[in-house]
Amino acid sequence: MKTKLLVIILLLLVSISSTCSFAQMRMTSFDHKDVIHLFNNKDLSDWEFVLQDNTSKPEDIFTVKDSILHIESNTLGYMYTKEKYDNYRLYIEWRWIKPSSDNGIFVLINESNKPYPSAIECRLKENNSGDFIIYGNASLAEYTTHENETRPLFPTIAKKYESNENPVGEWNQLDIFIIEGIVSVYINGKFQNEGTSLIKSGHVGIKCVSGEPIEFKRFFLIKINP
User: Fold this and answer.
1) Which domain holds residue 128?
2) I want to staple 30 with a disulfide (CB 3.0 to 4.6 A). Which of 19, 105, 190, 224 is the partner?
């Protein structure tokens, strides 16, 4: 009887571990001391900018007021950190200004192409926040094509669970864990997606989309020692 009970317990443990993401198991085991503030709450002097329309000015699109970054654009593009990072937890708060908005956060940027970089985007689209979109020479092992099938221009890996964003106008929380190339996404504390990248470090970026205003605050990352 005891042996049978032990077998049942072991099977349950194996089942639980197989459904937990790598980042979930790391949630309580990283060092919180290594905080890097990506936003100084005053200006964007620590960021670079890429815009499709050469006549557009970054300062007209990306503005800071009352410690909030407001993005309202008439062109495609993005801002990105001057430094590259690996093995971290990225935390950002965002809110949409109007319904059906579509935006995103870039991670593992390895080429600053125009209008969008070679990178992985964590999509911030109403009802689809947590989707992955793959740009340029970036890749995720979880995205595969059939034999003789051409990879689309923007491959997408849908989030795993039902959407849990807050309504338009309310703040949402985004956590992205990158540990040895494994990218894990949490929306408002709920695990939503995970992918495996061969590229393990890169810049962090914030996307701008024409006609899609959005606001951000409190974005920082915490270094993780794998």
Assistant:
1) 35-216
2) 224
The confidence score (pLDDT) of residue 226 equals 82
DSSP 226: -
* Residue stretches of the chain with pLDDT short of 70: 1-33
Domain count, the chain: 1
Tell whether the torsion through CA atoms of 104, 50, 79 and 109 is positive or negative.
Answer: positive
Distance, in Å, from the CA atom of 100 to the CA atom of 222, rounded to the nearest integer, reads 31
Torsional class of 187: left (φ above 0), alpha (ψ -120 to 50), beta (otherwise): beta
Does residue 3 sit within a domain?
Answer: no
DSSP state of 150: P
Over residues 130-144, the pLDDT tens digits come to 999 999 999 999 998
Cα separation, 39 vs 101, in Å, equals 23
